[in-house]
Specification:
By secondary structure, this protein is α+β, with helices and mostly antiparallel strands. Helix content is 25%, strand content 35%. It folds into two domains: 109 residues, Immunoglobulin-like (Sandwich), CATH 2.60.40.10; 122 residues, Sandwich (Immunoglobulin-like). A five-stranded mixed β-sheet has the order 2-10-9-5-6, with no helix packed on it. A five-stranded mixed β-sheet has the order 12-19-18-14-15, with no helix packed on it. The protein starts with a helix and ends with a strand.
Length: 312
């Protein structure tokens, strides 16, 4: 009897303890599951917007790049783009015989790479004799750089009634950076030489002379000198021609003609120095790199002298 009473008293207490333990497990688990899974779940969605935000911020960044690039080319060409080399300054031609004559500028960017598709505005002074075929009024046109970075318009001039006529043609980049080119046109009647000029070498640099051995990086003052005179027998024979240029060039290897677009191993200081009032042009020769072979000195673009150059 007493035992029955004792069991009856203990059973409710055990049952109560059992229920409390069972209810503790779900209560403890629920926050972990709810809190952890929910928090983790909410963190995962938060991470997705972050990725999405990165994608979004990447998209504008992608949009900004072109805007920056497109802004750099037209807005600051003088800083990013510049004239690397040129040819044609001091061109001498006979009136009406300029077909196929070109001027050229090589445009490179700040890293030294050729700048492709850059618009270069070519113009001449009002009243100048030489002109750009196909240009509006012959005085101005835009010639974009090709895949090599060169802009090369053609030029020509009618036959003048006076012995010699000077023109100045200009290449201009956006931003106002300019390079001028003198073009001297002679009357074509009774001409005794190409382009209405005759060129004579100096006593120390006859045609086919050997130059060097010269040291790379050094400049040799007066290494080449030439005298330019008009070759028109009746209009200006023997008259000195000023502003005719000399340029160092390499041959293209196939035609045997010099190619002004090739980078020569040596150059005259100033690129294309011009003849003075006495018709004398002086080339202070700067050696740029090692070389052993033949190069040309192109005078007025038409008359060429050949030299053997060796370096050390």
């Amino acid at each position: 009897m007493r035992l029955s009473i004792l069991i009856a008293l203990l059973l409710p207490a055990c049952a109560a303890g059992s229920l409390e333990t069972i209810s503790d497990e779900p209560d403890t688990g629920a926050p972990t599951a709810d809190g952890g899974t929910a928090d983790t779940g909410s963190a995962t969605p938060d991470a997705t917007p972050t990725d999405s935000a990165t994608t979004d911020s990447g998209a504008p960044s992608s949009d900004t790049s072109p805007a920056t690039d497109s802004g750099t080319t037209p807005d600051a060409p003088s800083g990013a783009l510049h004239f690397e080399r040129s040819y044609g300054n001091g061109t001498s031609l006979m009136g009406g015989w300029g077909a196929g004559v070109t001027l050229g500028v090589l445009i490179t960017d700040s890293t030294g790479k050729p700048a492709v598709g850059v618009p270069v505005t070519w113009s001449s002074r009002a009243g100048d004799f030489a002109y750009f075929p196909g240009a509006l009024g012959g005085t101005s046109l835009v010639v974009a750089t090709d895949e090599s970075g060169w802009s090369t318009p053609s030029i020509n001039a009618p036959n003048p009634t006076v012995p010699i006529v000077e023109s100045v043609m200009t290449a201009t980049l956006a931003g106002g950076v300019k390079r001028d080119f003198y073009v001297m046109t002679t009357n074509n009647g009774d001409s005794l030489g190409p382009a209405g000029q005759q060129a004579f070498t100096g006593p120390d640099n006859p045609n086919h002379a050997a130059l060097g051995p010269y040291e790379v990086g050094k400049t040799y003052p007066g290494a080449l000198t030439f005298t330019l005179v008009c070759s028109n027998a009746t209009k200006c024979y023997g008259l000195p021609i000023a502003n005719v240029g000399v340029r160092i060039a390499l041959t293209d290897g196939s035609s045997g003609k010099s190619d002004p677009r090739l980078d020569p191993p040596a150059e005259c200081v100033g690129g294309e120095p011009l003849s003075d009032a006495k018709g004398v042009v002086r080339c202070d020769l700067r050696i740029k790199r090692k070389f052993s072979g033949t190069l040309r000195a192109a005078v007025g673009q038409f008359t060429e002298f050949e030299y053997g150059l060796t370096t050390k």
